[in-house]
Structures are given as C-alpha cells and as structure tokens.
Amino acid sequence: MERSSVRKILSENSGAELLGGCSLGEGFSFARWRNGPDRVSYPGADHHTFSVYFRGYENARRLDRSIDGRDGSFCLMPAGAPSEWEIGGPIGFFHIYFTDESIRAMARTVYDRSGADWSLPDIAYRVDRELFHLCQWFLHAPIDSITGDTLLAEQNRILIMTYLAGRVFPSPAPAPAKGGLSPGNRRRVREYMEEGYSRNLPVRELADLAGLSEFHFLRMFRQSFGVTPHDYLNGIRIERAMEMIRRGLPLIRIAAEAGFSSQPHFSRVFRERTGFTPARYAREYDREA
C-alpha cells in the first residue's frame, strides 16, 4: 500500500480542520489542527510526526495502544507505523513533520554522529514538561506570526527537535559553546541583517554567512549579541519602523516595509518592544513635534 502524508490523511479522511501551516526549513514543516468527535486511522505515513495538544488532551485516546491523552505530553509517530485514535470532544494540536534525512542531518551537526543507528520510537502521550514548555509558541502564537515569521519559527524548531533527539536517542549532550562568533563573522552577520531586515531571513541563510550549522550558529550568535537572532532582527525592524513613523508614512505601508507579515503582527511586536501601539506612538510624536 502506498504511504501518504499525515496532513493528507487528516484533510481527506477525518473531520480535522487545518488552521495553518508552513515550512520550518531543513526538511521540517509545521501544521496546527483542530478536530471534534472523530476516529482517525493512520495506515503509516511516509514521514515522521511529532505531536502536542494545546487543548482537549482529555478527549483523546490512542486505541491501538489503549492510552489516554495526558496533560503536558507529546506523541511521536514514526514513518510507516500504523495507529488508530479516538476523539471524544474538541481538541487542538500541532504537528511537526520530518524525514529520516532531516533528523540524521541534525545528528551530524549537533551530536557529531551519523544518526544511521537511530530508530525513531513510537511514543504515545509521554509527559515531558520541559519539552511541553519549549512548544508553547507553536501551541499558542497567532497563526500569522508562525507562518509569517520564518526566523522565529525555525529557531523554535531547532530548540524542540534538538531537545527531542536528546530525549529519545542515546546521545551525549552537545558540547558547551566556547566563545561567540569571530569578529569578522559578527560584523558580516550584523551588516547582513541590517540590510535585509525587511525580508524573511532563514536561520540557514545566516548560519551560512558564518560557515556554521544552524544549531551552532544560534548558540554562538547569542553569546556574541546577548539575544537570539530573531530578537536582534526585531530590534532592527522596530527602529526602522519608528523612523518611518516619524517621517509620516502610513502604518500599513510601514508594516510591510519593516518586514512584518501583517498589520496585526507589526502592532503586536511594536507594543511588546516599546509599550505603545504604532498609532499611539505616531500621535505622541505628532504632539511633541
């Protein structure tokens, strides 16, 4: 029997509603779903699936393993592994889909191993509070933030999948980071981000500038700048947005030119960074001018 994707199975053979999805780079992808009373059978997908619930875990049960959903838990469905699920009420969950090559590439860069000896286990509702905490952004962030903020989505994917691999595979902890980016790489990355702030900047694109893997780049960037690449990029974007507000540009134009995926996304980030909405900042500036 030809294998299909979990996304296709849910879309065509269940009552599940896709709330949004996007690529997470390097062979990983994201989807957020909701469903009601239903029964879902997976004959075995052509990829691996990591799953966490953001609501209704008490309404879910894996029938073929006789395991009920639990708060703060995750599921891992290896490629080719069949499973059957019963949903007794409203649920919400997200998936991260990935391939063997994706996880093995991560093994090579994070753990200095080929990953060829890794066999992904079939896990149903294993409680892991630290992993659940790492998943909060994917669970609760507005969909437009996830699908429109490439850098933050990829940062979160790297954190989650690195932690997950360390929990389900017998791997030594990654070696502690020593020092940050070299002065040349620090300057190169900073200038690149200052020039390209208005577009999506994937982690891989920035890591390649420094000749590093995604994982090592994130650690070394934070050591050099004291913040994540996403926080640094948002700082640049808000500074540019404030300059444009002072020049009297329309807010909807500023949102696009500053690199935000939508007007609401721009407003949320602006308020988080300044304590003001863009409209209020514009009014305050006009009053003082």
Features:
six-stranded antiparallel β-sheet; Jelly Rolls; alpha+beta; globular; 289 residues; Arc Repressor Mutant, subunit A; single chain
Could you explain how this protein is built, in words?
This protein is an alpha+beta fold. The chain folds into 3 domains: 6-168, Sandwich (Jelly Rolls), CATH 2.60.120; 183-226; 245-288, Homeodomain-like (Arc Repressor Mutant, subunit A). Helices cover 47% and strands 20% of the residues. The chain has 13 helices and 10 strands. The chain has helices spanning 6-13, 100-110, 129-134, 136-140, 143-148, 150-168, 183-195, 203-210, 214-225, 229-246, 251-257, 263-274, 278-288; strands at residues 17-25, 28-35, 38-42, 48-55, 60-62, 67-68, 73-77, 83-87, 91-98, 123-127. The chain has a 6-stranded antiparallel beta sheet with strand order 1-2-9-4-7-10. A hairpin with a 4-residue loop joins strand 5 and strand 6 (67-68). Helix 8 packs across helix 9 (214-225) and helix 11 (251-257) packs across helix 12 (263-274). It is globular. The termini are far apart. The mean pLDDT is 92.
CATH class term of the largest domain: Mainly Beta
SS-derived structural category: alpha+beta
Cα distance spanning the termini: 70 Å
Helix-strand pattern: HEEEEEEEEEHEHHHHHHHHHHH
Shape field: globular
DSSP helix fraction: 40-55%
| Radius of gyration, CA atoms, in whole angstroms | 21 Å
